[in-house]
User: What shape does this take?
Amino acid sequence: MAVAQEAEIDGSITMSEVLARFPGAKRALFAQYHIGGCQSCSYGDDETLAEVCERNENIPVDEVIEHILFAHENDRKILIEPADLVTALQADPAPRMLDLRTREEHEAVALPGSELFSNDLLQEIFGNEDKERMIVLYDHTGDKVLDPAAYLIGHGFTNTRALRGGIDAYAQEADESIPRYKLEFED
Assistant: This one.
């Protein structure tokens, strides 16, 4: 299965489409151009990429697209496929599994050996974890996991991975015994 749906991108694409197709675009746009990080540089979901570029010092759309695609390729390197995680879980030591979901979700269903992420756990990892050990972060559908994974990588935990598609993809593709669920506020 493909890691991410490859899609055409041009100036006419809306920001909601950009973020759906390229989940790390929000982080990439803010880091490179300071777009989207605060009220003065925010954008609307229905605003086009060209409109956002024009309003932010007329940044060339082609340059922004190139940056989004470059960041997307780097994000893809962080992802781990559900089938590859099955193999990694059999290694010694197994990856440290960090669940970024709510306590209620974690208590209802979790991946084997996972720990519910918290600030206390983060401090324990920073103080005691081997920086070479694989750390795998996951959420429900994989849409909120790249930023925390990049954060750990930026702090020297270079073997950190983000589960592509979250626990939902893992349940569909790697272990059908794990119950799937839908949150009330999801589409």
Q: What stands out?
A: Confidence is low (pLDDT under 50) at residues 1-6. Strands lie at 79-80, 96-99, 114-116, 135-138, 160-163.
